[in-house]
């Protein structure tokens, strides 16, 4: 297992190289950021001086080589919008987004897994119809629309919860529900289908023939094997939440990484965009490695060679 983890960590290097190269090319294709950094009345001499200071006056391959060398040393440049080191700024915002993602995932798991189990163990019942209908609506419901409805109902009409900013537990509730609801629908459907598949396996019939209680058969024997695909999806969704919280953070003015990326893209703050995408990529890759290790722990039949 240790050698497998080390090998996967080594594979991060070429993957990250490809990612930062693609981002570098796309940011350069988006236009010249110098015009946005300077006021409208800036002279051509001022623009040329700033372009020279940022190495934007050099050939593309020189800029690319310089950029890779700086990235290897953890230097993504300085944000002209915030006047701060780009990587430092991104790492400051990352814990806020992680807080939102973890809270949303906890809500999704606590809601989805019990509903998936109940739906699988009460097949062809009203409860199963209710859960199935709810999961379909949860997957089909637009993310931004659901967040806006929560704001209107609980923030504007009832005035129970704050609708913007962060700092307290109450600020976290609405954005966490918005981000976690769609994930809960997918997890519930997967839990139901995976548990139904496990309940029809030979080892479950053997456990029932031994006279074990139905709850023991479900939770001790069938549910653990059913967890393997569920855990995989749950962990991979966390990586998606880190990079995909843009809409939620925009709706609730949540000061996380997603909002920072949107602001930086709009202002063409290339240093921040490149640093943010790099951090998100590293997070997703590390989460995938942890997921593989967890799946191997849940299913001893899996061997890493």
In a nutshell, what does this entry contain?
Keywords: Cell membrane, Membrane, Transmembrane, Transmembrane helix, Transport. The chain has 305 residues and is mainly alpha-helical.
Characterization of this structure:
The structure is a single chain. The chain is mainly α and 305 residues long. The chain has a domain at 88-298: MetI-like fold (Orthogonal Bundle). It is 77% helix and 1% strand. It has 13 helices and two strands. Strands 1-2 form a two-stranded antiparallel sheet. Helix 1 packs antiparallel against helix 13, helix 5 packs antiparallel against helix 10 (214-244) and helix 5 (86-121) runs parallel beside helix 13. It starts with a helix and ends in a 7-residue tail after the last helix. The model has no long low-confidence stretch (mean pLDDT 80). Belongs to the binding-protein-dependent transport system permease family. Residues 94-291 form the ABC transmembrane type-1 domain. It comes from Paenibacillus germinis. This is ABC transporter permease subunit. The chain crosses the membrane at residues 12-31, 100-121, 142-163, 169-188, 226-252, 272-298.
